[in-house]
Amino acid sequence: MEVTTVNEDLGRALLERVMSIPNGHKIKACQQCGACSASCPSSYAMEYSPREIIAALRAGVLNRVFESSTVWLCASCYLCTVRCPAGIPFTDVMYELKAMGIEKGLYKKDQHNIKMARTFTRTVEKYGRNAEVEMILKYYLTTNPLKLLGQTSLALKLLMKGRLDLFPHRIKGLAELKKMVAAVEGGSNGS
Amino acid sequence: MQNGEFEPKLVGFLCRWCSYTGADFAGISRLQYPPNLVPIRVMCSGRVDPTFVVKALAEGADGVLIAGCHPGDCHYQEGNFRAFRRYPLLLKMLEQFGIEPERVRLEWISAAEGEKFARVVSELTETVRALGPLDWKGRTAPREDGVQQGKREVANV
Amino acid sequence: MSEKIGVYLCHCGTNISQTVDIAEVARFAETLPNVAVVREYKYMCSNPGQEMIKKDIRELGLDRVVVSSCSPLLHEETFRAACDDAGLNRFLFQMSNVREQCSWVHSDRKKATEKAKKLVAAAVMRVAKHEPLEVRKVPVRNETLIIGGGIAGIEAALKIAESGKKVYLVERDSTIGGHMAKFDKTFPTLDCAACILTPKMVQVADHPNVELYTYSEVEEVSGYVGNFKVKVRKRPRYVDVVKCTACGECVEVCPIEFKNEFDENMSTRKAIFRAFPQAVPNAFLIDKKGKAPCRAECPAGVHAQGYIALIAQRRYADAFDLIMSDLPLPSVCGRVCYHPCEERCERGSLDEPVAINTLKRFASDWAAENGVEPAPRKRTKEGKVAVVGGGPAGLACANELSKRGYAVTVFEANEKPGGMLRYAIPEYRLPASVLDRDIERLEKLGIEIRTSSPVDDPEALLREGYGGVFLALGAQKSSSMGIEGEDKEGVMGMLEFLRAAKEKKLTCIGWKVAVVGGGNSAMDAARTAVRLGAESVQVLYRRSRAEMPAHDWEVEEAEREGVLFKFLVSPVAVLGDGKAEKVKCVRMRLGEPDESGRRRPEPIEGSEFTLDADLIVMAIGQQTDIAGGMEKLKRSKWGTIEADPVTLETNLKGVFAGGDAVTGAATVVEAFAAGKRAAESLDRYLSGKDLREGRDKEIPVAPSPSTEGVKKEPRVREPVIPSIDRVGGFREITGTIAEEDAVREALRCLRCGGCSECMECVKKCEPEAIIHDQLEETVEIEVGTIIVATGYRLFDSSRIPQYGYGRFPDVYNGLEFERLCHAGGPTGGKILTSKGEKPEAIAILHCVGSRDENYLDYCSRVCCMYSLKFAHLAKEKTGAKVYNFYIDIRAFGKGYEEFYKRLLNEDIYFIRGKASEVTAVPEYPEEEGKLVVVCEDTLLGINRRVPVDMVILSAGMEPAEGADELTRMLSLSCTYGGFFMEKHPKLAPVDTPTDGIFLAGACQGPKDIPDAVSQGAAAAAGALSLMDKGVFVLEPVTADRVEELCSGCKVCIANCPYSAIEFDAEKNVSVVVKELCKGCGTCVASCPSGAAFQENFADDQIVNEIEGILLAAKGA
């Protein structure tokens, strides 16, 4: 059996923070029914199901929460949130956990999901939208350049169908978008 | 008033059927709320004579809660509607005295809504705390220039 | 005077003392005015505590008491009684609530103590102003109303009835028994629900002290404890419960089928039905939504939906019989009626109205062709009746009276009977052979028709021995215009023209015809002229086409046949040398609307013109032409006979009149209606009954039926001969539809009325229990106590879309599965899928709707156990694999855990996890054609897909429909989910805050049968103890007036919700009627002069309370 560490103080602090998001306190009422996990389209790839993440978070078993892939695999489809009988805002909780993981440096250094998320954010900041080719190039260059080769046949197929732009496009009004992002981030920093 | 923080003094008029029972229910459920409000039991929110509210404010209360049954649920059919009709007039009068209408609150709280009772008391306490002490005498006294004070003071936020 | 107040502070164990510093409160209380003694004690409510108070009252001479403890709602009575005991008036007492509203809700000891001081100060200040008061006692009646006849209501009813007191048991459904009657087995003992329930149902119905109102609802409750006044609305069953022997013969012949609600809509039942074979009362009822709109619209009230339903079942003879009982001349009516019924037909809002008249013609012609005669009539009545006039009104009256068993003789002045039908309706619309056929049938039924027998004096008939006379003389004379040259040869009245044409007395060589008028008879005349071979036919009408009274289709047909129309034209003179040659006309324009709402035509000056015409037919109306000898009859200024519109009585006793002779020219079906109305009057007259009483009281028209899922389908078209072939002769234009078309058309009927009123059940019912015209009834009862036992409704599983309820036929809710298991259910107790197959795997989903923030927050308590029961039954009956998907198993009752263990040993699969969805989309080969339940097996931490053939949703419980209205009616409160709130969750679980009203069963919260039964018995005990005592003590909280202060402004009168305040005009003061005052105090608050006061809630008492609170606050 795996050895788990329970960090009560940090665990409590993180739990408080998750519970402070709107409806976040509802994780206290989790019945561990599993409707979230069975509804989740990505749960097949998760090490722990969303239900188990809630249990681990409440128990302070933080390595399961932050060092597993689960929170990073959330596709934000909201099906769990819609179906949860306890009204837990799962998707929002997942975002909060991602943010906390990064802030407190709780993730494993070789967790590529975070790099993917970062690369994505930066691309969006630069162009106002996703630029697939540039994002994928940067992601693999920072993680495992060799794997990039494996993606070429898929890229070619997408290119043939006109589903892939080789050159990134900037959106109109990028400056306004940046202002909006800055306002939101400034707001959240201020609180 | 230890720690220098202002503790509002609040009086609550609770109808015997719904709101007083709701307040009891909050107790049975051990819900916690600030101790600033002291309840007075009346048979119906329709019994609450506006002069009671004025009396309470004049005697030193900083805020008042009137609570009755939900519309349609009144034990006396329509007493709560009477309370509801008097309420805006009362607020208007208080405003003319220069008293913030937020200090007097009318709420429908059913016998099952212990949680709501606790929430309303908490909210009213915080609202009045933010408004500061009422100072009835100061506000209602005639001004030196002889002009009746009538303007609502800008709250010091 | 200075009072001596005793203050008693309760610790309530540590409930109060752990948060409130009682010693400090005591020190504070000693400083309060008039306080003579302050004591504290661990439990003031205990005997020693009470003794302490009593002792002080006696020994220290206390005259006021304050107890600071728990909520007055809990122990006020305890301490008041103690005061009473010690000789102190019980109202010189005040309680302060430092437990529920202080120590339990605050944790800061200092602040809680401060609040406790304020509470005590308020009570001390208040009690100083208390005055001794007398309680009011009201008598309690010995009857109980029980609302809801489920198992809880039945139990309560039996307990009370057994004690010798009267019970009114009101049940909304047609049978008592509630949900339990639908169940197959009951958990955990698995005994058969019906076996234990039905004996109780019978027992309660048979009990002499129980008055059962089924199919009834409580409409209004007024009054108060001990003396409630209740209005109960009894919906009509249309079957006499006493006479009905429940033989079920009626069901066989009923043509209408509906979904069977008792089987959760999984089977069908007839419009006449009973919920289930052991229903109590065991009598049938008819599902009538109201009067079908087609019948409501028909002047003669013909049972159209009835014969349509019978035609749909290919029961043409029965259909014909029904028509004959409504109409004397069915084939005639099927041809010439203008069928207002079809305009009201609800099918018209979906596609096209049902071809009602065409169907009537079909049934009538079918009967004639197949030699089917209507049911023979028996002469059952003594009297004989004379009908004067053999037209439609006269024959309708004769037919109706003969049906009712009278001997009838019709006197007809002409050589042949039929009236206008014979002489004014052209052959192409109504062949004489058809009329003859219908009339001959009447004669065969025993109606005597004497032709060429004009009657001059109706009273002479009475003298001859006829018990009554009906005058149906008709309107025999064409109106004339009174224009110049109208007397010239070649000018004819419409009636004379049509009659001459019909009798073939007219031969035409190249007429130029002008028909004056725009009504239906003008169209008849014009179209007849075309057929006679006229060179040209013109219709002259003084208004425009839009104002024409003729039916649109008539005008269209006439146009198609070559008739020309000249609108806004009026003849002013007929020109010609002895014979008509030309018509001089003037053009008209439309002015302001007249009384009839049509725009009045006005001549345009100088617009005269002439047109050629050698035959001019004046079709501008008919008049009554009443022969001499009838002069004793009172007439109107228009020359019509004056008759009472309801009874059709004339000024001559025993003589009734109706039809065109009374109303002026009208339609055939209106004439039929008049004849039937006369028959009703004559029947009443001859049997000595009141002519008016209870007449024309009719059941309301049915609401629009749902057209959901009804496919659009075109209306049947009658075969029609092309217009080109028509004009050469008088062949009938339309034909009768074919049998298959008729059946198809009849099936288009939406059955608005529910029951079709085909009267087949009436024919079958030997005990004559069926009352088709039964009306709703309101009964008023008076009771002392009320028990509410309205039960629950099952959560609607279709609200959870991912479970597919309502989408997948094999997803069932709990009640549906109960019916599938039940031997009396749709499958006879076999558990079969919608395809009729035995399931190989069954999934049972727990907590459907329950324990879910999105639906029902609460646990419905029964679902775990009924799921286990289902699992057992499913396993036992099918051998299928049974999966339970659960979150927690709650097996809390007696024998429940044991039952769970038994199931665990029965190889039932238990998967811990809430199903996330039920899908029919396969991902693996073994899932083909199955329903797949998707869930996380939370014990294994893996997602699972379980393919099954059947899914059962263990849906939760919600309050019954209509609980809201009852809440208002009875001033009840609701707790979570809308269940009725009990007075105290532990100590008074069947009482309500309203005295005299008790709760039993699932209306108070989800519960199983044993708990519902226990509550039924407990509520009965509550009601009995009140009634046995016979009196109820009312709080003295009523309002009153200080007369000298009252200014007579009447503001309080407007404010009183109970109209308990009267105005004494003499003294100019308002006066409270104490018996009506309920003590809300609203009037007191509204009194501008301070004259009004309320006992025990007086202004000075409340003001003192305020002062007490704020005085203590200042001191802090």
Comma- or semicolon-separated keywords:
heterotrimer; A: 191 residues; Fumarate Reductase Iron-sulfur Protein, Chain B, domain 2; 12 helices; 60% helix; globular; B: 157 residues; alpha/beta; four-stranded parallel sheet; 5 helices
SSE layout:
The complex is a heterotrimer of chains A (191), B (157) and C (1116).
Chain A lengths: L7 H13 L14 H5 L10 H10 L2 H5 L3 H4 L5 H5 L6 H14 L8 H16 L4 H11 L2 H6 L1 H9 L13 H17 L1
Chain B lengths: L9 E6 L3 H10 L8 E6 L7 H9 L4 E6 L10 H18 L7 E5 L5 H18 L4 H5 L17
Parallel strand pairs in B: 1-2, 1-3, 3-4
Helix pairs in contact in B: 1-4
Chain C lengths: L4 E6 L11 H9 L4 E7 L5 H14 L3 E6 L2 H14 L7 E5 L1 H5 L5 H20 L7 E4 L3 E5 L3 H12 L3 E5 L14 E2 L4 E2 H14 L3 E4 L2 E9 L2 E8 L14 H5 L3 E3 L8 E3 L1 E2 L11 E2 L6 H5 L6 H9 L3 H11 L3 H7 L3 H5 L11 H14 L14 E5 L3 H12 L3 E5 L8 H4 L8 H13 L3 E3 L7 H6 L4 E4 L5 E2 L12 E3 H9 L9 E5 L3 H13 L3 E6 L10 H9 L3 E4 L1 E7 L6 E12 L5 E5 L5 E4 L2 E4 L3 E2 L31 E3 L2 H4 L4 H19 L36 H4 L12 H8 L13 H5 L12 E7 L1 E4 L3 E3 L16 E3 H8 L19 E8 L14 H16 L2 E6 L9 H9 L4 E4 L4 E3 L11 E7 L4 E7 L1 E6 L1 E3 L3 H7 L27 E3 L9 H21 L1 E4 L4 E3 L9 H5 L5 E4 ...
Helix pairs in contact in C: 1-5, 2-3, 5-34, 6-7, 6-31, 10-11, 10-14, 10-25, 11-14, 12-14, 14-25, 15-23, 19-20, 27-28, 28-29
Structural summary, described in words:
The complex is a heterotrimer of chains A (191), B (157) and C (1116). Chain A contains twelve helices and no strands. Chain A has 191 residues and is an all-alpha fold. Chain A folds into two domains: 96 residues, Alpha-helical ferredoxin (Fumarate Reductase Iron-sulfur Protein, Chain B, domain 2), CATH 1.10.1060.10; 75 residues, no CATH class. In chain A, helix 8 runs antiparallel to helix 9. The radius of gyration of chain A is 19 Å and the shape is globular. The termini of chain A are far apart. With 157 residues, chain B is of the alpha/beta class. Helices cover 38% and strands 15% of the residues of chain B. Chain B is built from five helices and four strands; from the N terminus they run βαβαβαβαα. A four-stranded parallel sheet of chain B has the order 2-1-3-4, with helices on both faces. In chain B, helix 1 crosses helix 4. The C terminus of chain B is likely disordered. With 1116 residues, chain C is α/β, with parallel strands linked by helices. Chain C has a five-stranded parallel sheet. A five-stranded parallel sheet of chain C has the order 19-18-17-20-32. A five-stranded parallel sheet of chain C has the order 22-30-23-24-25. The radius of gyration of chain C is 41 Å and the shape is elongated. The two termini of chain C are 29 Å apart. Chains B and C meet through helix 1, strand 2, helix 2 and helix 3 of B and helix 4, helix 5, helix 33 and helix 34 of C.
